[in-house]
Amino acid sequence: MSETIARAWAVERRDGLVLGFTDHDGALDFDGIAFRPDSGLSARALVQGLGLSVDNSEAVGALSDSAITERDLMAGRWDGAEVRLWEVDWSDTANRRLLFRGHLGEVLRSGAAFRAELRGLSEPLGRAQGRVYHPRCSAVLGDGQCRFDLSRPGYAAEGVVEAEGRLALSGVDGHDAGWFEHGQLVVLSGEALGLSARVKADAALPGGGREVELWTALGIRPAAGDRVRLEAGCDKRAETCRMKFLNYLNFRGFPHLPPEDWLIAPKVNR
């Protein structure tokens, strides 16, 4: 039976795109996925630990315009993609065994090839859990703890890119300077569709425009004419939660904690 065993990979991006690869010399098809033999994708030896050890492996492949492209890798479209690896009998694909399930980690590129780290399902169990006691809020704006609805009027705006670099947008007016700082910019059209980044600074321009600076550049730069959405930002302070979002009941920080220097300050007897 070992003569008919092959490996098959399924990689699913966060936007729902699913690609299948196999090291067999012919195409395979199961679970509604077509596994292609012409991608150049292969796998290093899989290392699986007992207990809570992190599964460890690596996918290696050649860049292909019809599969995993350099442009998509640089844009981060494959970051965090779900990965499944089977050992399958190519003469009868119903006879298969799931070897690995996890996500793509760091992706490295060298010339026309890439190497992607694979992270197993047990990895999140090694992260710190529980609440952080800090004056600022520990929630993410709009998540299940914050409970703020970003679709409320005034907390998001759409605009059109006028210039690249420090993005100049038109059609965004009625917001104070800095309203979108610490928020998010999401690209709605063009080659950078779906990419997003955190906003470092934003300023109102005459005539209803906006000038936005991002913390990290997008993998694909939005071009003039592309549409983007700006979402209001939160700096995690209690005052911001109360005055800007009217959401203080859901504030997840501890604003009345004494500062760190209070612990080492000399005590005065009274």
TrEMBL record:
Tree of life domain: Bacteria
Bacteriophage phiJL001 Gp84 C-terminal domain: residues covered: 178-261
Name listed for the protein in its UniProt record: DUF2163 domain-containing protein
